[in-house]
Amino acid sequence: MKKLRVLLLGGGGREHAIAWKIAQSELLDELFVAPGNGGTQAVATNLGFGDSDFEAMKQALLDHDIDLVVVGPEAPLVKGIREFIEGDAAIAHVKIVGPGKIGAQLEGSKSFSKQFMQRQGIPTARFGEFDAAQLADAKAFLDGFNPPYVLKADGLAAGKGVLIIDDKEEAKRELDEMLVGGKFGDAGARVVIEEFLAGIELSVFALTDGTDYVLLPEAKDYKRIGEGDVGLNTGGMGSISPVPFAKGAFMEKVITKIVDPTIQGLKKEGIDYNGFLFVGLMNVDGEPFVIEYNCRMGDPETESVVPRIKSDLLSVLWKCGNAALAGEELIVDERTATCVMAVSGGYPEAYEKGKEIEGLSQVSDSLVFHAGTKERDGSIVSSGGRVIAFTSFGNTMAEALEKSYQSLSKVHFDKMYYRKDIGFDLVGSKD
Ligand code: AMP
Ligand code: GLY
User: Fold this and answer.
1) In a mutational test of the pocket of ligand 2, which residue from 74, 106, 107, 203 has the highest number of ligand atoms less than 8 Å from its CB?
2) pLDDT-derived band of residue 431, with 50, 70 and 90 as boundaries?
3) Beta-sheet strands, E only, within 197-352
4) Which residues pair with 288 in a beta bridge?
5) Which atom of ligand 2 is nearest to the CA of 296?
6) Which atom of ligand 1 lies nearest, measured to the CA of 159?
7) pLDDT value, residue 184
8) Which atom of ligand 2 is nearest the CA belonging to 236?
9) Is 342 within 8 Å of 387 (Cβ atoms)?
10) Is any ligand 2 atom within 6 A of the Cβ of residue 294?
């Protein structure tokens, strides 16, 4: 078979982990990443355009004779990258892993995804949805729930559009701000109000060609900035895979009540979904409920999930892009992988960039995935809030975490911060 020329879009830790894995494939001819980061340049060629610059991408597809595009983040999917490629005769031969615009609405619109789940009978929190003209109804709807109240901006709001509020009066004020005051802009012009689900979260991933799918290893991520899961939400401060309770009867329910009906439901509704499907779940006393769908892999989940995949990921992605996933199964490392993210002090609020990162060459027991770095005069400097992920393997979670923390102790940049309690809620957890 002709070896493959691949373009991966994105520039975070997720993309470094995927690039690192694709670079090991026997099927690879050459790998490009756009825009990439200070880590991807070690395993691929970075191209200097943004992940949603479709015209620049088209030129790169032609210049570099690309066979396969793999889309990392959601923005280009929601913007219609699949339709752009398929609709242009000069590049329509290029295969793409990533759903079309409508499929991406599973992530792009909370209202779309809740209605989809309702139509398909997929377990999720009870909900209602409201626009500015229904402000009074929205407030009255809160009376049907016990606190805390969950308010979600319908559209993409950079991970900040979900509010969980204990006090009903405050929840009403937030409804005013979202629906009338323009908080979250257009994304908040419609609001989903839903029941609060108490339980423990996990992230489940499938790669589907629209008919068949392979399940990837699951993971748990740690979103809050502070230890003990307190403080502001971030993109994710660390992740663990596997999740101890994600097995047996529980996983059976996840597959039969959620993953299968989701993929079959998309097909039934005529939504041609090819790409990653990320299901954010809550385990409520052994019953799985969907919290959200995303149309991409998670970050930092990918940094603990992808290293556990022993199979040739590029081969699986190529089959996905060619709608040929039938019969495919992944071989997965049984060990635990832990990822701990080093971030810039101040993140997720204001932080400084351009800090030189020292000690990376001292790290030997962990995989180092760059999230927000770039090269400057031969040095690696920080260029984002999340800066570097340290992924390690162990026969137990504790063993893997110890390696990640050992590696972190060798690396330094000004105002570096990380959580020292990743995995805390899984300690001793068997089911
Ligand atoms: P989302 O952007 O939908 O993933 O929501 C962000 C976070 O809010 C989730 O990861 C959960 O921790 C939390 N969350 C969202 N919806 C609910 C819910 N119905 N019950 C409890 N927690 C929720
Ligand atoms: N880690 C959660 C996300 O990628 O959305």
Assistant:
1) 203
2) very low
3) 200-208, 213-215, 220-221, 224-226, 230-233, 238-241, 275-284, 287-294, 336-344
4) 283
5) 4
6) 2
7) 84
8) 1
9) yes
10) yes
Q: Which of 66, 100, 134 delimits the end of a domain?
A: 100
The pLDDT confidence band at residue 430, using thresholds 50, 70 and 90, is low
Domain holding 38: CATH number?
3.40.50.20
pLDDT-derived band at 100, boundaries 50, 70, 90: very high
Give the C-alpha separation, 353 to 362, whole Å.
Answer: 23
pLDDT tens by residue, 37-62: 999 999 999 999 999 999 999 999 99
Residue nearest to atom 19 of ligand 1 (CA): 196
How long is the chain? 431
Contact 61, 7 (CB under 8 A): yes
Q: β-pairing, 95-97 with 220-221?
A: unpaired
Structural domains of the chain, count: 2
Cβ count near 415 (within 10 Å): 13
Structure tokens of 336?
A: 């635990």
CA atoms of 178 and 87, how far apart (whole Å): 36
* 107 close to ligand 2 (CB < 6 Angstrom): no
Q: Is 430 exposed, middle or buried (0-12, 13-18, 19+ CB in 10 A)?
A: exposed
DSSP state of 325: -
Q: Which of 145, 162, 234 to mutate to test the pocket of ligand 1 (most atoms within 8 A of CB)?
A: 162
Q: How far apart are CA 7 and CA 9, in angstroms?
A: 6
- Choose the residue to mutate in 205, 278, 279, 304 for probing ligand 2, maximizing ligand atoms within 8 Å of C-beta: 278
In a domain, 284, yes or no: no
The mean per-residue pLDDT over the stretch 186-200 comes to 90
The residue assigned the tokens 């060798």 is: 410
Closest residue (by CA) to atom 5 of ligand 1? 162
Backbone phi and psi for residue 17, each to the nearest 5 degrees, phi listed first: -65, -45
The structure tokens 């003209």 sit at 133
* Nearest CA among 363, 387, 412 for reference residue 12: 387
Domain harbouring 143, CATH code:
3.30.1490.20
What domain range includes position 94? Answer: 4-100
Mean pLDDT in residue range 397-426: 97
- Residue 51, domain member (yes or no): yes
In a domain, 163, yes or no: yes
